């Protein structure tokens, strides 16, 4: 009688632990070093295994800075100088389609932390909270690195 009760409880715990991982997860986070008064960019991979589209609405960080914004780097053509230039466009939010991986990476999407109170050195670590419309808040550890390799 006692044994029969325990097995269903274990199954329920196991299933709920799995389902939370199979919705949306964030991996491979890193951020560039930055100087006091300067900026840094945070990169990561969003893996949305849920059957519905989500949206990254906002990011907050464990360090003091003037602003945290979602940015998209794009090439645009400057007709006056006839040169291609890199431009960063602020995004109100970033759509995360169902069953997709969205990469925040150099040259593309990133989280821009503007006006750092204190410098960020390699091998430091910060925390960030990603606010998703459906998945809610996901907290990540973000190591400071030159290239995301370490
Ligand atoms: Cu930016």
| CATH level 1 class label | Mainly Beta
SSE arrangement, N to C: HEEEEEEEEEE
Question: Percent range for helical residues?
Answer: 10-25%
Number of domains: 1
Which regions are unreliable across 5 or more consecutive residues at pLDDT < 50?
none
Oligomer: single chain
Mean of residue pLDDT values: 89
Listed once per kind, the bound small molecules are: copper (II) ion
Work out the helix count.
1
Task: Characterize the overall form.
Answer: globular
CATH superfamily annotation: PCu(A)C copper chaperone
> What do we call the CATH topology?
Immunoglobulin-like
Q: First CA to last CA: what distance?
A: 52 Å
Structural Rg: 19 Å
- Sketch the major β-sheet: 6 strands, antiparallel
Query: Structural class, judged by helices and strands?
Result: mainly beta
* Number of strand elements: 10
User: Strand portion, in percent?
Assistant: over 45%
Under the CATH scheme, which architecture would be assigned? Sandwich
């Amino acid at each position: 009688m006692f044994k029969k009760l325990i097995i269903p409880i274990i199954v329920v715990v196991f299933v709920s632990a799995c389902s939370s991982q199979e919705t949306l997860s964030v991996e491979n986070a890193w951020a560039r070093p930055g100087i006091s008064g300067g900026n840094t960019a945070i990169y990561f991979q969003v893996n949305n295994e849920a059957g519905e589209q989500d949206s990254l609405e906002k990011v907050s960080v464990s360090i003091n800075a003037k602003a945290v914004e979602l940015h998209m780097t794009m090439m645009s053509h400057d007709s006056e100088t006839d040169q291609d230039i890199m431009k960063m466009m602020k995004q109100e939010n970033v759509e995360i389609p169902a069953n997709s991986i969205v990469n925040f990476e150099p040259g593309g999407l990133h989280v821009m932390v503007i006006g750092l109170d204190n410098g960020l050195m390699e091998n430091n670590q910060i925390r960030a909270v990603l606010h998703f419309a459906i998945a809610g808040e996901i907290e990540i550890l973000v190591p400071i690195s030159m290239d995301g390799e370490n």
